[in-house]
Amino acid sequence: IRAALAEHGDTGVTPRHTLFFFHGEGDHDDLNEVARRAGFVTSGQDETTVLETTMAVDEASFAPVSAMMQSWAAAFQLDYDGWECAVVT
To answer: pTM, whole model, 2 decimals?
Structure first.
């Protein structure tokens, strides 16, 4: 995603609406609770959870959040299916 942003002249340092996607039969309720406590807005249905926040997505800002998403997926037995955000120029 960062490569696509860079193609449009977006360095990722400007905070923007960012979504994170989780799928599977794991514990979505516990993920929602932990994510809300961490400041994320949560939504989803059935076997999908979407976490929303406003953040910068440059490498330095994003790396710890990405690691947190991966650890949450493992902890709640879900598949972390990546993220998306808008281009900001």
So the answer is: 0.93
